[in-house]
Amino acid sequence: MTEAGCFETVRSDRDALNGAIEETLRYRSPVRTASRYATTKTDVGGVTVEPGDKLCVWFAAANRDPTVFDTPGQYPSLAKRETT
After folding, report:
1. 3-class SS at 8?
2. pLDDT tens per residue across span 21-72
């Protein structure tokens, strides 16, 4: 929490703590990727995936998705946001 005033905001408003934790996990995710092997033929985003193909999910990229987050590259954003 190096952003000016962020630490003081959390110290003075305990309700902001959950948001700060969520933002920290989003911005500095402890798990960045996960790999799996396809077991059946399928289509992912218009690309055919064959059985045995290795797939990699990049959580770090998803956590910076501008269609989900108003300021994806900015930390912190203590404004409340809807989660699904």
Report:
1. helix
2. 888 888 888 888 899 999 999 999 899 999 999 999 888 788 888 888 888 8
- Determine if the pTM surpasses 0.70: no
Q: Distance between CA atoms of 24 and 83, rounded to whole angstroms?
A: 15
Read off the tokens for 1. 């929490």
CA distances from 62 to 5, 13, 44, 72 (A): 27, 29, 16, 10
The three state secondary structure string of 15-76 is CHHHHHHHHHHHHCCCCCEEEEECCCCEEECCEEECCCCEEEEEHHHHCCCCCCCCCCCCCC
